[in-house]
Structures
1.
Amino acid sequence: MEDSLNHPNGIPEDECDRSVAIGEYKCPVCGSVGSNTMMQKKIPHFKDVLVFNYTCNKCGYVDNEIQDAAPLQDEGIIITAQVNELKAINAQLVLSSHAETRLVEIDFGIIPKNQASTITTIEGYINNVIHSLNEHLQSIAEAMICNAELSIELSNGQMTDATEYIHKLTLLKQDVMGYAEGGKPFTLVINDPSGNSYVEEVDGITIDIEKYKRTNEQLVEMGYATSQDFKKEWDLAQPLDDEDVGQEGMCFFVDCPHCGNQGKNKICEVVVPGFGKCVIMAFTCEICGAKSNEIKPGGGYKDYGKKWILKVSTIEDLKRDVILSSTATVHIVELDVEMSPGTVGGVFTSVEGLIIKIMEGIEKNHPFLIGDSTPEMKSSIRQRVKLLEKYANLQQVESYTLIIDDPANHSFIGELNTGEQGDSLKTETYTRTYQQDEELGLIGMNTEDY
């Protein structure tokens, strides 16, 4: 096998993303040398992917494959897609190489074993299941020619007669074919510990998404190190003084949630003018490059909630400092766009940076609706993203209203660089509702004798 890689001629740099390579490898069918093209591409579904295309000019063998080049998401994901109408089987589907799928009604599952990542549709997935069942049935039928009394070992260890096994699989295949023809609704469950699988939201389909923390067994199966592999003992006998945090900051070594190696978690207390003390936490992993940061306002919840109302009309308004706590709701009135509490966690940014984070949140939650492959009739969210991009730079927009509503009063919009609050910024203090107190954990809290 030759391992020389060369950049192809005739491919524009913008199309190959400056990362196209061609290699010559032996064909797995005829043994002749074929051409394998590898290209790194950014698409809305997988973010970063590697696309492989192998072609043998002698026997005509062709093989296509994609591999997700994006890092693991922070959490695993379980997607439950209830397909209720025939047109919903055209919904696009992305399955990473770690995704386990199951058709609930017939209790049929596919375990990820040496499978490649794929971009297809629900109909394409069903057709692949039917194709795999046909191949399996054919292999058993051929084996029965040589042994008419063939027995099959099931996954639970039990033995069954091959004839009965074929009968059950045939009935199972008929049920799956009924799904492809739209005869009855069905439920597809995707369990992906990498978090890189998606199902397109279209009419006729109901999608429920649940995120979870990966287990050590799942990390090992995906080829990543676990926290136990890098566990060390620390001497924590020495007490920490409160004033140590506010001076030069503190640094702890903690396990990286992505690769399991130890990274640095730096903590520092800062004083924000006009707001008060805040604790900034920044994590970096030098092994895999993972980074995260978060800000936590100091002190407890305030007695009253607070609403910040900013009329953004100048470039100076975009440069205002913003502290957004995990309990705050962000609302852009003119676009009717609202970001619920906890969407981005605690951040210290600017008005411009906050609008960009809202854009990124929409793109992450609706990857198919943002992509170029989306039909024009489904482009309403894409249009909102384009408008948010204009709002972030005040392009072709005179003004808009940004509201930050924080029942804990841990959020903040800063003054202009001139040191003045300006007429465009207003604040409202209000008494929290019973539901807001309950969400903050204040109902039933016993503070006596403390």
2.
Amino acid sequence: MSLRICLVFFSQLLATTLWSALPASAQSIRVFTEVIDVSQPEQPQPLSHSVTYFHAGRVYDYMPDLGEVVIFEPDHHRFIILGNNYVATEVSFAEVNHFLESAEQEAQKLIGEYSKSSEPHALQNAALLQFQLNPNFQEELSNGNTQLTLLGSQLDYQVTGTQMSDSTVTQEYLDYADWTKRLNYVLHPQPTLPHPRLQLNQALRKHNLLPRTVEVTLHVEPRVKLRAVHDYSDKLQSIDRQSISRWERTLQGEEVRWMTFQEYQQFLIAQVQR
């Protein structure tokens, strides 16, 4: 696993919020997300940014660098994806889970192959994959129940957050984070399975803790440490509503080219290879 790939895609283990007592009844929420490589604290390197809108029962997640918007529709148990060049697809939660089952089987095969090698790098990859399939963390809650730490043999999480008076906001956010992590693994080829992140989310649910910041440290050489920060607002700006309206119009328009999910995956691979 190259260090650069590890840095870019391991950042998707993170999901954080800067959230101050938003009511559960809030209809629209805007989230600006930035992921930063802090492996060298004196030289932090921005890795990615995105903007996410919770609006009218849907979640719109837009990554400007990819030109892609992913729409989370929990009531319909699906995602709709609008890519650049007016291509679109949809994928059900059941399909996402099916792809993950296949990925787990492939991961088991890779573990077997890596384990046969005497190379330290291969053995490190085997240990990391095994941990991803079956993460085991030591959990610590401190600082007035606002700081959650998960310590594992291959990676650690440190979360600072807010305990919400109403758990509805936390539950809805973490449900979105769960499914988005699953989809990201399937949609964009990457070396990190979603299981560690899902276990973190479960711990956050248990403590009704909505995160402000999340840091993840990967136990590899050289060490990888990433930080994600989300800036939340309980109001959408006019430009935000315009973006949502534009995406919805595009999806209903004749210029959009619909693909199967498998075709869209191949489209993304072709884009990367250009």
